[in-house]
């Protein structure tokens, strides 16, 4: 038991920077459980199997102290890697199809967002979610997410439904200033306008359209689970053009103010 505790603490420090919350989100468990495991409580075998699979750790090393820590030819979650290679050929872990064999568009409503972070690879969880078909979205792999909040206002309203197409290669296929649904272990499910700086700085920079109230932030690719590119959305509210006019008027006023200061 003591050896397992030491190894879990080692993993927590190496893979999650000693952050119990991040560790718990990755494993789909509670911070309390992680604290208990780090303090000497023996984890169930299911937890150890999942830990081995998630981080590509040699299960014999973890349980019996045999062999090397990492599986042969595997990479640490925190090691440097080329996303061009790591994400090439990846597809969603679970897709559902209709009677004709075409992919369904699975809906992840707000109330299921937390469960999706751990259930995205669980066929039983995905099959319980509602699914739909839309015209002109029959070629490709799509998923629909309900957004919450006003960070993308006025482009997207609170409780809108965003349909995104699966992005296979993040470094190559994520284009600047387009809208994406990003599923990550650190930020959950977010819909943002993105700047791709993976190759240059090793990060994606996420911007809200409502930048007065919601600051931009960055996401490390190693924390990302899935990326979906915006294709369409469903909303029950119409955008108010007055909001745009107010922004333009405010900008014009600022320019006039700066011009007057420069002339003085």
Helix and strand arrangement:
Blueprint: H1 2-16, H2 20-27, H3 31-38, H4 45-55, H5 59-64, H6 83-86, E1 105-108, H7 113-119, H8 123-128, E2 131-132, E3 142-146, E4 161-166, H9 170-173, E5 178-184, E6 188-197, H10 198-201, E7 203-207, E8 217-219, E9 224-234, H11 241-263
Parallel strand pairs: 1-3
Antiparallel strand pairs: 1-2, 3-4, 4-9, 5-6, 5-9, 6-7, 7-8
Helix pairs in contact: 2-3
Keywords: DNA-binding, Hydrolase, Protease, Transcription, Transcription regulation
Protein name: Transcriptional regulator
GO cellular component, one term: membrane
**Approximate shape:** globular
Total separate domains: 2
Our estimate of the beta-strand percent is 15-25%
Tally of alpha and pi helices: 11
**According to CATH, what is the topology of the largest domain?**
Umud Fragment, subunit A
CATH superfamily of the largest domain: Umud Fragment, subunit A
**CATH architecture tag of the largest domain:** Ribbon
**Taking Cα atoms only, what radius of gyration do you get, to the nearest Å?**
22 Å
Termini separation: 76 Å
Element-level helix/strand string: HHHHHHEHHEEEHEEHEEEH
Main sheet, how many strands, which sense, barrel? 9 strands, mixed
Identify low-pLDDT runs.
72-89
Biggest sheet, spatial arrangement of strands: 2-1-3-4-9-5-6-7-8
- What class, by secondary structure content? alpha+beta
Indicate the mean pLDDT: 84
Approximately how much helix is present in the residues?
25-40%
Task: Give the CATH class of the largest domain.
Answer: Mainly Beta
Strands, total number: 9
